[in-house]
Design brief:
By secondary structure, the chain is an alpha/beta fold. Helices cover 33% and strands 19% of the residues. The N and C termini lie far apart (29 Å).
């Protein structure tokens, strides 16, 4: 099941959120990897969660083609100045080991 956005992009109706696992971020990579193996294609994370590197490692290790994934992240509250946005997004992409994201939101 999915939703089609106004620009024609398709977003899976169900995604995996990566905020505050039971043991901090120590299980994030394994959890994301397991979710991807089970068919999840939408992963939601944020720089403020402190786990974009783990999410990126799981995506890379999974072998799932990038074009099959819908990855969302959030702009941390400390990066809301217009002059900071590009750098913040570049940092997230680097931590996620991705060339592009799909959804970038402002976290309040």
């Amino acid at each position: 099941m999915h939703f089609t956005l106004h620009n024609g992009q398709v977003i899976p109706a169900v995604g995996l959120g990566t905020f505050q696992g039971d043991e901090g971020n120590s299980q994030v990579k394994a959890t994301v990897l397991a979710a991807l193996k089970q068919g999840y294609r939408h992963i939601d994370t944020a720089a403020a969660y402190g786990n974009e590197r783990e999410v990126g490692s799981a995506i890379k290790e999974s072998g799932v083609p990038r074009e099959e994934l819908f990855i969302t992240t959030k702009l941390a509250q400390t990066w809301h100045k217009p002059s900071d946005v590009a750098e913040a997004l570049e940092r997230s992409l680097a931590d996620l080991q991705l060339d592009y994201g799909m959804g970038n939101y402002i976290a309040w």
